[in-house]
Amino acid sequence: MRKSAPELLLVSCGSGIDHALLSLDGLAQLPCAQDGQDGQNGVGISRAEINAENELVLTLSNGHSINLGAVKGEKGDKGDAGVGIANVSITEAGNLKVTLTNNTSIDLGNIKGADGIGITKSEINAQGHLVLTYSDGNTSDLGVVVGKDGAKGADGKDGADGVGISDVAVSTDGVLVITLSNGEVKTLGNIKGEKGEKGDKGDAGRGIAKTEIINGELWITYTDSATPVNLGKVSSDSINECLQFTRLDDGTLSVAIRDDCKDLVDDLSIPAYAYGKAVTQIAEQGFYRCKYLKNVTIPITITAIGHFAFAETALENVDMPDSVTEIGANVFSRCTSLTDVKLSASLTRLGVGTFALCTSLKNVQLPSGLIEIGGSAFGGCSALTAVEIPNTMTTIEERAFEGCTGLQELTIPASVTDIKRGVIRDSGITKVYFERTAGWEDKTQEILALQAKWKTIFVDKLYWRQQYI
Questions:
Q1: Contact residues for 413 (Cβ-Cβ < 8 A; gap 6+)
Q2: Helix or strand (DSSP H, E) at 452
Q3: What pTM was estimated for this model as a whole?
């Protein structure tokens, strides 16, 4: 008889399985058990890590650790080579073509879009609108883009003063030196070239034998021909319009200005010749009261200057040629702008009032051959500070230096034999030196007595050198 296999028996008490039994003999009758007590809490994993030896270590919630051994395998075999992209291109049709490293080609289709629309022109019209013109011919008005004028900005600061050139000079050794307005000096190096070779001797030249002005035209006679050459008109304004000439007994001419030109002339060059004749005299009152006449050039043909010839003009300087031997009275009187005078070396006498009331006259050189100073010749020349009387002088006329308040002293040379009354009246002269005292009367006491009586001086203020110094 075969032995039966064991069976698992499940015993249920109520709705659940209470317990299970193995039975060799089949179903057994067992009583139902009572509810057991709750089991203890389970143990969990609080941490898992792989240590330096590649071992998996578990840390349990009750603090215990369990080492589960190595978990990192060995390095596997090297894999086969991968496939990459060798080239990317776009065909003429616009397709994107990719070539792989294994020579496989992949066509990814057309990626070229349709032609876009561009801007061919942009402008701002008269109303201040921005207008765009597109490549398809259409236009768009984008509205006003020009704003209103902004407020006026504040004035900028003045710029710094510039630096200019105050002087340019070339030194004796040829170096160019520039001095700037800030005082800085710049040396720009040598600009003087080496001396060139001497040129060939030129042909013999021709000189001028004679110069004439006939009817306002210049005629020249050269040394190599007896026939004069007409060079045309040279001074139509001054000769034909403003100057008038008078024939003198010796066949020469005197010159004067026309009355209707007196207020027109400020610079004047008196011609040496007119109508083929020499101009030798400046007529009496020839340029009297030409109130704008500042400069005059006197030619070397002039020998005499008449009374009041340049009186009451605006002359500033006078350079009298040595050809002049005679001047009349008051030739330069009341020329209040006159400051410097060079007289002719040929003069022997100064006329009456020659420089009377020339209040700006500072410098005058008396010629060495002068023998007489006319009455009031320098009367009222308040700016005159020094006068050197030449040792050829013999006579000083009345009031010659009256009112010369700038003069402080005067030296009378031994050649002087006659001094008239009032020579230094109302002047600034306080000392007079006589190179020769013999023959002069000392009026000091007489003057003092008259001064005390009349409170003024009526006689000369001349004193001997020894008594007044």
A1: 389, 390, 391, 393, 435
A2: helix 444-454
A3: 0.48
